[in-house]
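Page 37, continued from 36.
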């Protein structure tokens, strides 16, 4: 059951699993009918089950599982980023010197750090 912002992954995927189970049953029965038919063969039953059952269901599960995989990847990346940020903050907190006044950021102004020397760089121009 979904409450507020909580998400229950199992309840969201029940219809997908129901479709997979039902279609697998149908294709299994098709394969059994193929194998037991007087004109059918076991090889034909295997091919029927593979091409009508396993292949389409594999594609369906892959496509319908894409949002879940993306959520898991984003959650893992967020956890890794949070761990990195915490580690980085702890490293800077322990390595920071104790100062009475906060230091100013270097190059906090909008000016260039140094001006170019006059005549040090030759101008590029078209030859006469």
């Amino acid at each position: 059951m979904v409450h507020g912002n909580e998400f229950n992954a199992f309840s969201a995927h029940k219809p997908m699993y129901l479709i997979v189970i039902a279609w697998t049953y149908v294709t299994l029965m098709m394969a059994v009918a193929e194998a037991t038919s007087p004109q059918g063969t076991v090889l034909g039953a295997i091919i029927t089950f593979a091409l009508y059952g396993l292949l389409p269901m594999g594609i369906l599960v892959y496509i319908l599982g894409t949002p879940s995989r993306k959520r898991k990847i984003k959650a893992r990346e967020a956890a890794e980023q949070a761990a990195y940020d915490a580690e980085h903050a702890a490293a800077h907190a322990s390595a920071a010197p104790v100062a009475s006044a906060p230091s100013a950021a270097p190059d906090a102004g909008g000016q260039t750090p140094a001006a170019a020397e006059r005549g040090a760089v030759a101008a590029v121009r078209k030859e006469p």
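The two ends are 83 Å apart (CA to CA). Flag for discussion at group meeting. The mean pLDDT is 80.
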